[in-house]
Structure formats: structure tokens, C-alpha cells
Amino acid sequence: MARPTGVGTDEVRRANLSTILQTVHRHGPTTRAELTRQLGLNRSTIGGLTGELQALGLVSEETAVQAGRSGRPSHLVVPRADNLVATVDLGVDRIAAAVVGLGGEVLERRTRLHQRGEHDVDHVVESVAQMVEELLAACAGARCFGVGVAVPGAIRAEDGMVQFAPNLGWTREPFTERLGERLGRPVTAGNDANLGVIAEHLRGAAAGFTHAAYLAGSVGVGGGFLVDGVPLGGSAGYAGEVGHLQVDATGPQCRCGATGCWEMKVGENRLLQLAGRLPGGGPSAVAEVIAAARAGDERAAASLADVATWIGAGLRAVINLFNPDVIVLGGALAQVWDVEADTINAAVERSALLAPRGEVTITASRLGGESPLVGAAEMAFNPVLEDPQALACAAGPATTRLASPRR
Ligand SMILES: [Zn+2]
What's the 204 CA to ligand 1 centre distance in angstroms? Predict the structure, then answer.
């Protein structure tokens, strides 16, 4: 990532500013000595660059005296959390929103349930806008770089058009544009699972892996993939809709119009229905089925085993298609994995094909239900991380320091 020293062009300087800001954002406060080592630049060049980031209000520098070591005190470069983004996870049953400071700290959060029939786009735009405004009002004086939204559907990469979100009942909805107009701020949207894999790779269970799959179950199942360290988008941004892989030609019919899609066999509501419960209870209802199975409820246990077997069938297809190093499971898939890993593994191993199960790490998400929210924040931070100078100037100076929860 480091560029050659001494070239002195504006482009190289901007790239180095970006590398330093990304390092402190992703890894936390970092000493100038460590940055000097990582970028392969000399001390005075690093000092100049960190001074520039400080003048832009993006980092602060502290003098860290290292105990028991002689020599010069090290300057610690700390991301300033009063540079923030708003992030939204638009779920089928609820909206979660947060503000996240540079450095990745969640500073404030809100959750609101959708009312029945509230997937009407006007209603959702207004609900999300109100939540974002409340959150930003709680961080008055901070500098907001934009809003990132995770949506359970296919999002057109070029303009954020929600092409198809079957579980919200949306087709070709210009949600992103509408929210941007309502808020008067830059808004970007992405598929929730595509953002989830980015979050797990930067800050969660897929850290250190280069070929990762993130599969999250709720009402539907979303899939996000990292291939050779790069998010898989496809030609228009729709890649990874593994919830609609056909795993059972005998049914049932899916909301997408096809038959026997994976999410119809492993989604939350399928588990609840098999266990003799009402659909729509979300993660807590899934947890109740798991508790009942542990307490000896045979129907609950059988429903978990059935869903686990179909989870394995889908994972087998994912492994054979993508040959990942790691599969991170989120939502209901993680809940079932926690208690039925053996059943899932047995179903995966029924057909190993080219990529034996043993080479793939399967694990529950480390960020829990937060992966899409964290990923949407990273998406919203991207422009300032890529060109700190251009964005920091455009967004205007932060006027008030927030109390940083980091220290
Ligand atoms: Zn389908």
C-alpha cells in the first residue's frame, strides 16, 4: 500500500494520507513509529502527513511515553470520533440505525419495529430519516460524512436503486435517492449480506481470510462473498443471491416466484412452522425453539434437525461454487449452527466434490446481528478514507469535540 518516498507528487501524498487514515480507522490508535515501519517512509515524512490529517480534524496526536523504554517518546495517532457516519440496517421486521465514529466505535443507536404493512416506501423513508436525524442531533457539532444503508435485496451498484427486495415487497424502488433528498445528505445503499461480508472481513470472524462467504438468515437468506479479498458484485451488483438457490425441486413456492429456494427451507419462519409455532417471531422465537429442544421437546428438536440438514445442503453448493476459506454464518443460521453443527457438517460432507469440507472454516459471525450495520458504516466512510483531503474539506470542519468513548 505504501508508495515510494521522495516522489513528492500530490497523488502520492493523497495515497499516503489515505493509507494512514485507513490504518488508524481499522486498527485503532497507532504510533508514528509503527506507521513509519508500515509505509516504509521516513519519520519526517510521516510527521508531515499525520500533521496534515490533524489539521483536517481527522486525527489527534498524543504523546505516549512507553514505560521502561528509553529514547524518544512515541506519538500516538488517534482517529477522531467526531468524524462520523450514520448507518442503517433495514430489516424485514425492524430498522436499526446508529452513528459510528471514525475508528469504528458505535456512538449512538436506535431500533424501531416496522408496523404491519409499513413497508410502504414513503413510510420507510420517513422512519429512517427521523431515526437518522435523532441520532445526528445527539451528536451535535460532529462532522457527518454521509449515510450508509443495508437493504435486504438486490441493489443496483451505480445509483442505489432497490431493484428487488422480495421480503419488503419492493421492485425498482428509488429508495436511496429518496432518502438522500429527504435528508439532504449523501446516502449510499448496499445489499445487507454484501456489506456483512465486508464487516466480518474488516472487524469480525473473516479477518485474515481472503476467500470468504457471509451467509445470514432471517426471513430470507442473504449471501455476500469476498473473492481473493475483493467483494463479489457481478455486472450490476446483484451477485450472491444464494437464498434463491434451488435446493428442493418439490417445493415450497418462494416469494421470488421459483420453487424450493434455500431460504424457504432454512428461513426463520420455516423453522417456526415446523416446530408448530406462528411465523414472524424473529430471533427470539428461534431461541425459544432451541430452548424447547434442549428441554426435551421432540417436535422442536426434529424441526432444528430438518433445518440443519437443509442448511448443510446449501452450504455444500456454496462450497463447491466458491471454494471459500471461511464461511461466516449470521442470524438464524448462526443460531442453528451453535446447536446443530454436527448435523450441518454431516449434510455438507454427503458430497465433498472438489472442495473438501475439511479445508473450509465454518463459524458463527463475530459481530452478531451487527454485521450489515457495521458494513454500511464502512461503505459510508469509504470516500473520506480514500481521499481524506477532498472529503474533509467538502464536509466542513468539525466544530465541537465529542467525548471519545475510546479512552
Ligand atoms: Zn426464491
Answer: 29
378 C-alpha to ligand 1 centroid (Å): 29
Rounded to whole angstroms, the Cα distance separating 378 from 238 reads: 19
Q: CA-to-CA distance for 294 and 308, rounded, in angstroms?
A: 15
How far, in Å, from the CA of 269 to the mean position of ligand 1? 14
Give the integer Cα–Cα distance in Å for 359 and 403: 45
What's the CA-to-centroid distance between 221 and ligand 1, angstroms?
Answer: 10
**Mind listing the domains of the chain with CATH numbers?**
10-79 (1.10.10.10), 83-192+370-395 (3.30.420.40), 205-366 (3.30.420.40)
pLDDT tens across 90-105, in order?
988 889 999 999 999 9
Residue 113: CA count within 13 A, CB half-sphere: 5
Cα of 174 to ligand 1 centre, how many Å? 22
3-state secondary structure of 396: coil
Instruction: Count other C-beta atoms under 10 Å from residue 103's C-beta.
Output: 22
Which letter, b or e, does each residue of 70-85 get, where b requires 16 or more Cβ atoms within 10 Å of its Cβ? eeeebbbbbbbbbbbb
Q: Ligand 1 center to residue 291 CA distance, Å?
A: 29
Taking 70 as the pLDDT cut, the residues of the chain under it are 1-8, 65-72, 115-117, 351-358, 394-407
Q: Is 259 helix (H, G, I), strand (E, B) or coil?
A: strand
- Distance, in Å, from the CA atom of 192 to the CA atom of 55, rounded to the nearest integer, reads 35
Q: How far away, in angstroms, is 259 Cα from ligand 1 center? A: 7
Cα(220)–Cα(332) distance, integer angstroms: 10
Cell numbers linked to 106: 458505535
Residue 400 phi/psi, 5° resolution?
A: -130, 140
Using the mean position of ligand 1's atoms as its centre, give its distance from the Cα of residue 263 in Å: 7
Rounded to the nearest whole angstrom, what is the distance from the C-alpha of residue 61 to the centroid of ligand 1?
Answer: 52
Does residue 104 come out as left (phi exceeding 0), alpha (psi in the -120 to 50 range) or beta?
A: left
Instruction: Give residue 217 CA to ligand 1 midpoint distance, Å.
Output: 14
Residue 349, SS3 per DSSP: helix
CA–centroid distance, 65 to ligand 1, in Å, is 58
Centre of ligand 1 from the C-alpha of residue 257, in Å: 6
Kindly give the distance from the C-alpha atom of residue 107 to the centroid of ligand 1, in angstroms, as a whole number: 37
- What integer pLDDT is reported at residue 54 of this predicted model? 96
Q: What predicted TM-score, i.e. pTM, was given to this entire model?
A: 0.88
The residue type found at 190 is G
